[in-house]
Specification:
It holds the Pfam family SPC12. This protein is mostly helical. It has four helices and no strands.
């Protein structure tokens, strides 16, 4: 059984932009809060822990292709038959 048929693995372009923007906002927010909190209690390790928690949260929210990121899928053109395309190019390429 193929897992890609069970779970969707794609994300549209606007969803990618949304995920990137969300990840930057979350990481910046957690970084600022961690820096301020670490400065207040004079523990750099707390800054790193808070930033790590922000990274984990960001990863859970942005890496999986949630339906939030698949709202506007691309409409692809139908595939051409490769046999017909090869015959057409050989006919056009010949000079008489």
């Amino acid at each position: 059984m193929d897992l890609s048929s069970i779970f969707p693995t794609h994300m549209d372009y606007e969803g990618q932009a949304r995920a990137e923007k969300l990840s930057r906002i979350i990481l910046t927010l957690f970084g600022a809060v961690g820096l301020i909190w670490g400065y207040i209690i004079q523990q750099f390790s707390q800054t790193v822990y808070i930033l790590g928690a922000g990274f984990v949260l960001t990863s859970l929210l942005t890496i999986p292709p949630w339906p939030l990121y698949r709202r506007k899928p691309l409409n692809w053109q139908p595939a051409k038959n490769p046999d017909n395309t090869h015959k057409e190019t050989t006919k056009k390429g010949k000079k008489k």
